[in-house]
Amino acid sequence: LQPPEKEGGLPRQVGNKTECALLGFVLDLKQDYQAVRNEVPEEKLYKVYTFNSVRKSMSTVLRSSGGGFRMYSKGASEIILRKCTKILDKNGEPRVFKVKDRDEMVKKVIEPMACHGLRTICLAFRDFPADAEPDWDSENEILSELTCIAVVGIEDPVRPEVPDAILKCQRAGITVRMVTGDNINTARAIATKCGILLPGEDFLCLEGKEFNRLIRNEKGEVEQEQLDKIWPKLRVLARSSPTDKHTLVKGIIDSTVGDQRQVVAVTGDGTNDGPALKKADVGFAMGIAGTDVAKEASDIILTDDNFTSIVKAVMWGRNVYDSISKFLQFQLTVNVVAVIVAFTGACITQDSPLKAVQMLWVNLIMDTFASLALATEPPSESLLLRKPYGRNKPLISRTMMKNILGHAVYQLTIIFTLLFAGEKFFDIDSGRNAPLHSPPTEHYTIVFNTFVMMQLFNEINARKIHGERNVFEAIYRNPIFCTVVLGTFAAQIIIVEFGGKPFSCSGLTLSQWFWCIFIGVGELLWGQLICTVPTSHLKFLKEAGHGITKEEIPEEELPEDVDEIDHAEMELRRGQILWFRGLNRIQTQIKVVNAFRSSLYEGLEKPESRSSIHNFMTHPEFILEEDEPRTPFLDGTEDEPEPDGLQKRGGG
Fold this sequence. Notes:
By secondary structure, the chain is α/β, with parallel strands linked by helices.
């Protein structure tokens, strides 16, 4: 404990919160723990049994002045109490502690504390005589016949922002589960305060022993079928071991319940959490309280140890995904229209309506500026109001495909109408019959200007990819987007009015400008019309960019013992298989080249070898068996055995 930052505040806690709470209790009793530490420094400790999740307690042995030993223990109250045969009364004198006394203490002291969310810790000691030193390695014998000093209740208050963060997770389709080593009553009380357990909800709260009894068979093996019956309703797993946490994570990942594979994120701070953090799809380690092992095993480190940071991570992850989709939606619309206009116009009029420099400007709008504008949208709370995407969800959804094709139809209709009838509408000379190297025409300038205006307003449409109507929502929160749109509009005015021959543009009148802008604004109105068309009725539209599911993998690419393979590693395996095939082809080519080269050198020395250049193919060294599975090495020989590690990864 360190002095408070502000006068009158609480002392600052550094290190383990349980230890700090006990030290704070000592200070509240008007005692000085530092004096005891000075009297008994760490090097004077005779024996230390550190805390772990199996024994759920820790003990320290000191040598007494009379030659004997005294052991102090603290740990989970119900576990330590079972090993106590005496208890100190109010005068500090030990008296007999019977089984019925223990049951009464559990019922009247421990359970009420636990039900209020207090973590109960039992403090005890034992004296050993000086005549014979006990066998310190026999832990069960050492940790028995204890004298109970007290049972304390420690509250780890729920941070005020946590219930709201958990509620946001639940709205976002994320189920929060608590896996803890605490008493089940304590865990249930804290879970209720946090909002993990909701009134009227059908849920399960289990202890580690009961959890293992339900999911394991007579041989002690985990049965996935039994686990699939439990985990969907499981919300709290108390008195759990690190193995239980890893089993639960692996079971959810490997589960076949539901249409899609579950994506599992795990938080942890201890060394024992390492396997579960490594196994999870996303591992969150605590930056302050977390050990180095936990941080190394995790994917993301929470520097503030706050659950709300996980919500921010979810929000940013969804925002990045949506930003990529927005950019693709806009870029593909521009691509489809530009390619069709350039190709069809060139075929019909013998000259592309959009000139080379104009296409470069369109590409600049489409690639660089659009990526800056659409990929810099800040995340908003609305991202947490929908379910998460599946692992194999297409990057281009059916709604996006509807938007792309719908806007492409509008733009192509407008462009071709202007191209073939625009001169009559605006009462100007036609640009279709203009001779080669003639000055830029107003006709083709209007076509180019209208095309750019439509892209500019469609960029605003592209801000929404889920069929939302309000495309202007929170547009002011993204100054980069506003700057890009206004900057592009200003640059377009300069190009049209002053671009001249380099940009193949001729100055337009104010009336012509208004018509170009009006047609561009029509993109926004057309977007509203597209939104009214239900996507569910457009079954003919295909999605694009989805991941490959297990069913789509050819059987020959699957390792033999596929049942033992984690589905989370399947994509990695598939990549390895493709990588090995590529290496195999390269190795084959190198062998063929070496064979030709060696036969050539031999031919220079032995003229008779020139009779048939195919003789080398009959040599056993160059018989290539494509069906034989093997891990190729570019720098290895054919007979060289595969390293064990690669054999294991290749075969599962």
